[in-house]
Design brief:
The structure holds 2 protein chains of 2 kinds. Chain A has 6 helices and 10 strands; from the N terminus they run βββαββαβαααβαβββ. By secondary structure, chain A is of the alpha/beta class. Chain A has a single domain, classed as Rossmann fold (3-Layer(aba) Sandwich), CATH 3.40.50.300. In chain A, the strands form 2 sheets. A 6-stranded mixed β-sheet of chain A has the order 6-7-8-3-9-10. Chain A has a 4-stranded antiparallel β-sheet with strand order 2-1-4-5, covered by helices on one side. In chain A, a hairpin with a 2-residue loop joins strand 4 and strand 5. In chain A, helix 4 packs antiparallel against helix 5. In chain A, 48% of the residues are buried. Chain B is of the alpha+beta class. Chain B has 2 domains: 165 residues, no CATH class; 151 residues, no CATH class. Helix content of chain B is 50%, strand content 19%. Chain B has 12 helices and 13 strands. The chains are: A alpha/beta, B alpha+beta.
């Protein structure tokens, strides 16, 4: 069942001679229980696609439907609520609050979303699986790049969202960790019926994907 | 509040410096207000202790008690009740053997009238004869004791200190209470003169006696030598200080908020409502300002305790509440200025390309 639909989306920045079209007539669907991989080089429009799919940016043309809700019809507040309750973002950079310990990153989620988050036991299992359970009292500045990325993944998953949008989730990880993260995303999709969308240029993730798209110069094709 | 406290706890140096700045600003404002109010009080303490509402002076005295003289003939035309009292004022220099000279204001009063009855004694008793005086406690701080014999001005006549009274100052000089007879001697006037003025505690008091003018106490106080100039100077100093302090605090809090925008963008991307971020910003500003004010107030209290008794520092609750409220409001305004920026923070700014 499709939980995310991107229909004929075009995104243009600037005006007149400065106009740049970053996405052109993009169509995409993500279903529950599937890992969708969008592969493309830097500057191909991957992150723009992801922000539009997650309701952070609005398309110039076309529409985005998340679990039956057309984002264009939702108010800013409703889009916030939809993101908080149904979409988990794994960002490429600056993805943790620097003055919160790993434990407090999860506590913050509890403060703004009291229901539907992972239980303490599930969180512990998740942290163990990602190999970061011993880092619970560390601040982001005390973590390596790979550890930071894994905490950011755990933080997004803690919200227990139906859709996970990940922007280069394995950029800072070695091959072994890429496998752990890829397997984790795959398991989440299969065991917990999540829709996972990963934009990346890391081809090592291809083996964990159910569908692979390629994006180049703003145009998306099924790979 | 969660984010606000966590950030303060983590960024101890940065927030410590900001609290330190608020402490210094509030300390300066509190101390200056205390000095201004203390000095203003020392101009009028004696008058305030009488709880009077009007003063009657010679109409040619330019509203100054020290320049006023009322003859017995004129005074007899004014119908006095238990609410009126004669008063004679003379500037004097008091000296006693082995003690430092003290400039003071001699006030001659009548035993049967209300000022005499209202003046509080902290030690000894009130003067009953022309050679007895009761002096302000500050004489005690300068080594004078009960029973000491003092001379006033250049006369050889000795006056015995029979009592002390508290908070009796006029035009920042300690007050010496004595009889009207002593006042005549010190002022070199004959018994044809009754007093310098008449004090009344009746709002309804009126006299149409020729040669006299009646002033309200507030007008009389404003006409005390140097009082208005001094108060205006302090008011302007505190006013400017408050404005500068407000701008500095507001700018600091604004910069602080702007520095946090990348973090806010991440939180917005994750769906954290803008309301939470605004509440965090305002509550953090309040924590910083309240913390700074509390430490500033504690430092001021310590200063008051450490200062010598002669320093005129006194506090007025409404004035302090106004100053505190002003600084608090500044903090909130400083935090609220960037609210629009927080509400419009673009989560895309933290996404990769």
């Amino acid at each position: 069942m499709s939980v995310l639909e991107v229909n004929h989306v075009t995104k243009t920045f600037g005006h007149n001679t400065n106009e740049v079209t970053v996405l052109t007539d993009v169509n995409f669907t993500a279903a529950a229980g599937e890992v969708s991989l969008v592969i493309g080089p830097s500057g191909s429009g991957k992150s723009t696609f992801l922000t539009i799919a997650g309701g952070i940016q609005t398309p110039t043309d076309g529409d985005v439907v998340v679990q039956g809700n057309g984002l264009a019809q939702l108010s800013g507040k409703a889009r916030d609520a939809l993101r908080l309750n149904h979409i988990g973002f794994i960002l490429q950079a600056y993805n943790l609050v620097p003055y919160l310990t790993v434990k407090d990153q999860f506590a913050l989620v509890d403060r703004v979303k009291s229901k539907g988050n992972l239980s303490a036991t599930d969180l512990r299992h998740l942290l163990e699986k990602l190999g970061i359970s011993q880092l619970i009292n560390q601040y982001p500045a005390e973590l390596s790049g790979g550890q930071t990325q894994r905490v950011a993944i755990a933080r997004a998953l803690y919200q227990n969202p139906d859709i996970i949008l990940a922007d280069e989730p394995t950029a800072a990880l070695d091959s072994e960790r890429v496998k752990v993260v890829g397997q984790l995303l795959h398991d989440l999709a299969k065991e917990h019926n999540k829709a996972i969308v990963v934009v990346t240029h890391d081809l090592r993730l291809k083996e964990f994907a159910d569908k692979t798209y390629a994006i180049m110069d703003g145009k998306m094709t099924v790979a | 509040m969660f984010l606000a406290l966590k950030e303060i706890r983590h960024e101890k140096l940065r927030y410590g410096l900001i609290i330190g700045m608020i402490v210094l600003v509030s300390y300066l404002v509190f101390v200056l207000s205390g000095l201004a109010y203390g000095l203003a009080q020392q101009n009028t303490q004696a008058i305030s202790s009488w709880n009077a509402s009007k003063v009657v002076l010679n109409s040619d005295a330019n509203d100054s008690l020290s320049q006023s003289l009322i003859t017995k003939q004129t005074a007899d035309k004014v119908k006095l009740t238990t609410h009126e009292a004669y008063i004679g004022q003379a500037g004097v220099v008091a000296k006693a053997k082995g003690q430092a000279k003290l400039s003071a204001q001699f006030l001659g009063i009548n035993q049967s009238q209300f000022i005499y009855k209202r003046v509080k004694v902290t030690a000894g008793h009130k003067p009953t004869t022309n050679h007895q005086i009761m002096v302000d406690d500050s004489f005690k701080d300068n080594g004078y004791r009960l029973g000491d014999k003092v001379t006033l001005n250049s006369t050889d006549t000795q006056y015995k200190i029979v009592g002390f009274t508290h908070n009796a100052k006029l035009s920042v000089a300690p007050v010496i209470y004595g009889t009207l007879g002593t006042w005549r001697t010190l002022s070199h006037v004959t018994s044809d003169f009754q007093a310098s003025g008449i004090i009344t505690n009746r709002d309804s008091f009126k006299t149409k006696t020729s040669g006299l003018s009646t002033l309200t106490m507030s007008k009389f106080i404003n006409k005390l030598p140097g009082y208005s100039a001094q108060n205006t100077t302090f008011t302007f100093m505190i006013g400017f200080l408050m404005i500068i302090a407000m701008v500095v605090i507001a700018v600091f809090l604004y910069i602080l908020t702007m520095q946090k925008l990348p973090n806010y963008a991440v939180l917005r991307a994750q769906g954290i409502p803008a309301k939470v971020l605004v509440t965090t910003t305002v509550s953090q500003a309040l924590i910083l300002v309240v913390g700074g004010l509390a430490i500033g107030a504690a430092l001021t209290l310590a200063t008051v305790l450490a200062l010598p008794a002669g320093v005129p520092m006194s506090f007025n609750v409404p004035l302090l509440a106004g100053v505190t409220g002003g600084i608090l409001l500044t903090g909130v305004i400083g935090a609220l200025i960037p609210v629009k920026v927080i509400l419009n923070v673009d989560p895309v700014s933290v996404m990769g390309g």
